[in-house]
Amino acid sequence: MNDGLKELTHQIMNHCYMMISHRFLIRDEIRSGKSDKEIFKKLENDYGETILYTPKFDLQTAALWLSPVLVAGAAAGVWAYSKYKQKSNVHIMALNIVRGVPLTPREKQTMLDLLSPPPPQRAASLWWRRWRSQ
Question: What pTM value is reported for the model?
Answer without folding.
Answer: 0.37
